[in-house]
Fold each of these.
Amino acid sequence: MKHFFLLPVLFCLLLTGCVGTKPIDASATKETKALYHNLGKLSENHTLFGHQHATEYGHGWRGDEDRSDVKSVTGSHPAVIGVDFSGFSGRSPEAIQRAKEEVRKNVIDTYNRGGVTTVAWHFSNPVSGGGFYWVDTVSLPGVKYIIPGGEAHEQYKEILNGIGEWAHSVRGADGKLAPVIFRPFHEFDGDWFWWGKGHTSREEFISLWRFTVSYLRDSLDVHNFIYAFSPDNKFKNEAEFLERYPGDEWVDMVGMDNYGDMGRDRYAIDTAAAKLKIVSDYAKKAGKLAAFTETGLESIPDTTWWTNTLLRTMKRDDMRLAYVLVWRNDTRSPTHYYAPFPGQVSVPNFMKFYHDPYVLFEKDLNNIYKRKKFLGIF
């Protein structure tokens, strides 16, 4: 057997610096609390591998049942599947309903297989055109409009009502609600999204984050979300990383998106690792989970990228990373892909990555939604 999930909880009780065992939602479902705890335990020795939109579509295909490019290469789906709430607003009611149903099915299927879902939100600007990107000639700084006191606040609540309704509908074959890692307003330290740093103040962003969590959790009784905070890679120290942090009581997981240091703009493994260590160290100190929430190299022309860049970055220091996620494989583009498919030049190296005991795929997970008992202790 390649990996074993049996990591003794007793060690967590005896050692200091162990990740907290409860999410910020005191009423979180049993399965959500178990996922949070187990991700923390696994991150002491492993990192789960994730791929965005892995089972929805891939290089040259879409909508095939139980398929992913990663599974076609390795025999296993990624341990973490990325989906998106992008279709939950800014479209016709019929299109929104279709999007919700497609994401619901994906999340339930992943949960039933024993995998993990993380949700990004490429949120179309609710007060102007431009979609989720900032477009100088079109976009309005939407955050100030949708936070409490803003003229579009009630409209934002309606959008969240739709997310809340969806969250109550994702029940697995066991009848339980499937937990998801919800990662809204990502890469907020850049200017490319309308919620980015150049288009909203620190106070407005924090207000948006706190209201979003509070409304979902406390008003809509959503108790199957784990909340992840992830800037891009512009920070150089902990203070910069935490510049727009809403506070420990509002965040379950801290992360970083980083393509630039991982080969897109430059190969800077030491720089990328140093930034990841800032994230991991803060998580240890604050009792949070940590993750490498987005990365990858488009087209993967580097035949050793998986072991010589990604794995080396994550292993350089003593870090605890719950998962690493690479971006999507576009179904139409011949070049826009971030995970290998059969015949892609990095497949041999990806198989080395797959067989490394540090990395976990879906087949390696064992009851991640249940707390283990050891010596009678939960």
Amino acid sequence: MTESQKRPRRAPGPDERRLDAERSRRLLLDAALDEFSAKGFAGARVQDIADRAGLNKQLINYYFGGKEGLYREIGRRWEEREAEFNDPAVPLDELLVRYLRHAFDDPRGTRLNAWSGLTEDTDDFPPEMREDLSDMERRKAAGELADDLDPAAVMLVMMGVVAAPIVMPLAVRRVFGMDPRSPEFRDHYAEQLRRMIRHLAPTPTPEENG
């Protein structure tokens, strides 16, 4: 027996176990987002998620309580990520471009939202999950939106224009004649959205122009 075989196996310390658990959770969440965005919640299989992550599928139950728990955790993590760039202090056109850039950089969340919108029952939508319009209403009061514009309608339009290049890439090619993945299209589209959003502000009257 060699010296290494005689030596007892060292048990991992608390920090090592924590890091291993964090890595496993991260791999499973990333794999789940891949599967959900490609197949929707109903079409994604736990075994496929585990295989993509290179882990035992039992860990999904252990860490998240099943596929539903994975789905909820993805939503929670998106809210954390959104809070990092959804700054009420930035102008509305810049805020929209920030969402657009995030969608371009990682389109999986946008695709997942498209799946959800097409397959989930809207009658089961809980009222407490209604979109918070307080920031949009504040922006309207501050003069970023014209008085005759509904903040809810503006927000829905903003969601749509961010999602459009991701969920309708063929339409981008037909309308713009450009590759939706190209830097040229991304820059052009972002600049056009900035201009559109600026046009939503009230038009100064001749008296206000001096």
Amino acid sequence: MLTSLDKSWGLVLGVSSGIGRACALAMAQQGMNVVGVHFDTAAMDESVTQLREKLSSYGVRVHFHNANAARKTVRQEIVAGLAELTDGAGLRVLLHSLAFGTLVRYLPAEEGTAGISGPQLEMTMDVMANSLVYWVQDLAAADLLPPGAKVFAMTSAGAVQHLPSYGAVSAAKCALEAHVRQLACELAPRGVAVNALRAGVTLTPALRRIPEHHEFSRNSARNNPHHRLTVPEDVAEAVVLLSSTTTSWITGNTIGVDGAELLAAGSSWAGGESGS
């Protein structure tokens, strides 16, 4: 059964760009109030202001925090204010879309360079994977994840594929998917669903930071059965659809939102057809 998202609340971690931004807009279009956390410099002020104004134009309440969502004190402060902000109703949606990690190779690529360091590896794991657990822990302890709530974490095909600079992020995505499975089981008695969304290759600011992204994106668009890359709005549509369900029976999954891109990756028919 589907239900309205009107007047409910969503918390988006990584709201200012890419998939987080698109999801916030789609949620607001459905009448959902949005709390957003982003971590940006002054160069992004105009873009963030425009996003906030666009969200508000749908008649919803909007609260943004420019802070590091992976920091304990930031998380505690935001969680503490959510009970009053939501009038005790809690969240309908938690979207974890934090894309900040090192793109340093494990081993030196050439003489005079350094391989990945312990702090770099640990930071990537903490921001892109472990922070999901910490947010869910605090929200659950504050009774802000009521029955029917949905938790989404953004993963990628990089969890099972190789790119030279993607090792630390790939490891974090694997851990993130494991966290999703564990949280889904532990939150099941509460009626809360937890799923990872595996978006296809999407031209977000995070992707453009990957050194190999040009060739990787071209290959992905060629091989995708739809003959295009995923766009943030594809993921946003999935978030809204899944958030509108009343069931918690769809939980613990890694759900592909990629137009079957991963299935077709490297297949001869996909490459041949797109080149014809």
Amino acid sequence: MNLSRQFPLNALRVFESAARLMSFTKAGEELGMTQTAVSYQIKLLEDTLGEPLFLRRPRQVTLTEAGEKLAPKISEAFQAISDAIGGMRDQSEGTLTIHTTATFASHWLAHHIGTFQVENPGIAVRLETSQTVVDFSRTEGDVAIRSGKGTWPGMKTHFLMTSDFTPMLSPALAQSIGGIREPADLLKLRIIDPDDVWWPVWFAAAGLPDADFRNGPSSQFGAQAFHAAAAIAGQGVAILRPDFYKDDVALGRLIQPFDITASDGSDYWLAYPEARRNSLKIRAFREFMRKMMPTFRD
């Protein structure tokens, strides 16, 4: 049976409130309706059922026998609906799914996400990493941290950090040619992923717009983190975001031979669907990022 066609469901909600409060006036106050509107909905339900549900006396209403039988069952039904919605909300607010790149996940989130979980013990975190920009209409998730221009339709975005890049390599590889003294020295070494669009941008910034850096096979590892691992292993020069590799520099695994950095105009942004900006878990993560990143901007 299709209840939406057989019964006026709004009238059932009005009846539940009036029966619980034993007052049309109080039911109207609870539901944001006038007493006249409450009376109309009750009469509509009575006409549908073919039974009077209330005895109307001056300044007082009481339930009929039919009303007394119906009231607890309707209250129970609405409580079940409320519990179901509340449970779904609790479950959806209990896990924060973050989509980002493997590089950002391993070199920033891995160092800070524990603090978020300590501050928000009721929220579990699930990380999803990929090189593609997530489509929230097709993929389950809450927030994304991505490199780009920050202009994605339907998304609320917050600037996190610049995305400057520069060549980095292992100290041993640099010493293998007697050290790196000028940008042109990098051309003596194998370039990791010479097809990376960052390379011509950086060489132009370094004063070598016509540099021939495609001096070996073009290996593409698919993620900056893999390029960094290859550079640490001494397999060549990688172009990386230096902010992500400060620990490797401090430990002597990588060096940044030049202070010259470049940018292709893409920066890191926190993004999430505009319609979900008031989600409690998204608000918690947004404020966490605001606190942890001095460069955070709305």
